[in-house]
């Protein structure tokens, strides 16, 4: 934020001569100068908060992307269920983050482990935070919960979603974000006391670890404890594809997530009206770094998508749009950590490797008989981990000093000549996130399983949760031909009402 420039009548008076009106003139000029300075300061606050609010709206729009992606990736008989859980993530996450989450994450002053102020937004806004900042961080918190819901789709009781979503957004995720994003966090690159981990702190600019790894590891434990869906592996242990019912929804969700990522990554600068003391000139400022971040985000996703396209063509013999969409999102998850501190060419390297990381983790999941309908743990956990390592390898010194000013000798990327300290900090982040999420979410899912609150019964899973738990199907199809059938669809008759239809045909719905 800009600070007001002061004007003193006593300093101005010698320049106005010794006339009787000099003092009054000096006071008048300083008064006008101060008014203009305050106006410009207020304008800076307004512009920056408007930018942050717009970014928050974009990140929140990703919830619609998650909903469409999840809906298309599950079978039609579970569409209503997965859509409802996505709504629940936002609603339950909103209350839990308001009551506890934001305070645990950013309740400064605090210790390095957990925040302790601003519960229920008490004493808000403050000199440190305004309401726009809370909204932006809430949108991030519910994104982590949305990742987890995809891993345990098609077999999880509704009450389990309520419990885990509130716990994740109200406690587990905020603690991690405090460690790496708060000015008090023990491993934060923005730590205000200057006592940085390895002299660097962890650079996780927009959350490859804080958001994607947290959501992915939580989903990993949920899916592992629940076990695979019925029919995912046959009696011999061979993998059986349980394909989602709508590639169209998957593509729609992917593009919505792509759109929202421009709030996720560039928006993490939080402000836009800030100049840099740069030899490039006055045209170069934080607005330029924001644009560069959008470019690196784009290039990583595009590269991952194309790499996945041709790699899967060689591996399985056909072009698969679902795999391409997942590859694209894997590239985005990977670049999220270093998007602000790497060159555009490095983002292409990031996306290329991310695609192979996703392919490799998917093959490992099949061997281990691990079932994740959206590949969420592999995509967000695996590619997010690669993104953290990538930042430790490719972070550029000039960009690191722009984004994290005040420490000109801060370590940067190993491959860019900055030594291995940053990479060491990044590896520590991966380890502590895996450990923290495992010791919190793992026991939670285990207790839900022991109390029979986690997985639905076999009969309900085979029939589909839309019918057994939500009162009906998400889709209703009408077929006039009594003998017709569609490949891959099971036709289930719905009894007619007392009023006969004109053509005396019964309505039927399609259940997948």
UniProtKB/TrEMBL annotation:
GO biological process terms, semicolon-separated: ammonium homeostasis; ammonium transmembrane transport
Spans annotated as Disordered: 493-512
PROSITE patterns cross-referenced by the UniProt entry: AMMONIUM_TRANSP
Mode of membrane association: Multi-pass membrane protein
Regions of compositional bias (Polar residues) in chain numbering: 495-512
Primary localisation category: membrane
GO molecular function, one term: ammonium channel activity
GO cellular component, one term: plasma membrane
Residue ranges crossing the lipid bilayer per the database entry: 50-74, 95-114, 134-152, 159-181, 201-225, 246-264, 284-307, 319-338, 344-365, 377-395, 427-448
Pfam families recorded: Ammonium_transp (PF00909)
Ammonium transporter AmtB-like domain ranges (all copies): 51-475
Subcellular location: Cell membrane; Membrane
Keywords from the named record: Ammonia transport, Membrane, Transmembrane, Transmembrane helix, Transport
Family listed: Belongs to the ammonia transporter channel (TC 1.A.11.2) family.
Name this polypeptide is given: Ammonium transporter
